[in-house]
Model the fold of this input.
Amino acid sequence: MIVKVAYNNGEVKSSVMLESGQVFVYRCDGLGREKTGIHGSVSISMDGRELAWGRINLERQESRTSLALGAYKASGIGDLYPAEDIKADLLSFCRQAWPVRLDGMKGSMLAGDATSAPPEFLAKPHVLRGGGTLLFGPPERGKSYTALIMAVAIDAGVNGYWQTEKSNVMYVNLERGAASVRRRLGCVNTALGLDPDRALLILNARGYSLSDVRESIDRSIKENGVELLVLDSISRAGMGDLTENRPVNMIADAMNSLAETWIGIGHTPRGDSTHIYGSVFLDAAADILLRQKSERQEHSLGVGLEVTKANDIARPPPMYLRYGFDEWGLSGISTAAAGDFPGMDEDTAGPLPSASHQLEELLGRGKLKLTDIYSALPDYKPGTIRAALSRQKHYVQVQPGVWGLVSQ
Done:
């Protein structure tokens, strides 16, 4: 007979103790309502040994029966807990799981607190604890370096550019190869005065989307006590057209469910570097919108970080940094002043690379749908991209609507 079903931290759980002292545990997580009914990942274990597991429709008898019979056969327990009893207990568990989950998340009376502490930061003033930061700017402006610098500074507790709260960080790289990220990390460590070999928790998944690696991210976050998630980049989320509301809401839901505090890198639309590319719901998803302006000078890049939206805090003044570069990559970081970069307000980071150059770099990371290419290269008109694809012999349509390099 199933005992009380309880909800805790996203999981519904119950147990049955047999007269022999053995304990069967029923668990379900990832509960959600889909078109065909309530779905969830259900497992049955005995004394800590998993017997059966599967993502099922909790309302389908066939799915429950298959799982229950699988658990019975794997248990080898025979008449001590007959298959019919396991089926009945699983039915009872599945019937209660969704209402219990709803009860566990329902609203409650909350008293106001005018004496509470002010908002806290992981990196003041740009990363609010418990909030989301969207760092945006045109392509090739050093945004990935800025995000990696912030990630390492928070992970190591380095102050000087931001006032940081040392916290475990995970950096998810969907944009470039592992060797490139490893080299960049060594450069950032050195520039921040750390051991060049210092490690950072990084998931390198070039060619994959956020939806592809979401479960891996979730597992890494829980195993490593991650407090800040950094995603490079939003355009590679793989949840649909960023100009449509539903995909953008899915991205925001994914980030908020994975980590309490996060940074996402976004791009700007063609011909307008003042706001992030995508639906207005992308703006709404962030607590802080952080615009990155830049100006190239000899062997250096001037970077201006301007908060264009801030929830719960006053907008801080712009921050100015100078990134030095040599043949290895980033060679130094220093604070700067607005007057050091007279052309920054015009965002003069040099001429825009050709569409073909951008395509070669983009497709070198893996095959992409044409719609995803449009999203990843917002500075170019779709017609320009299509023309570049058709003119160059090293681009090939590997299947309808999907492009890659000939060598892939």
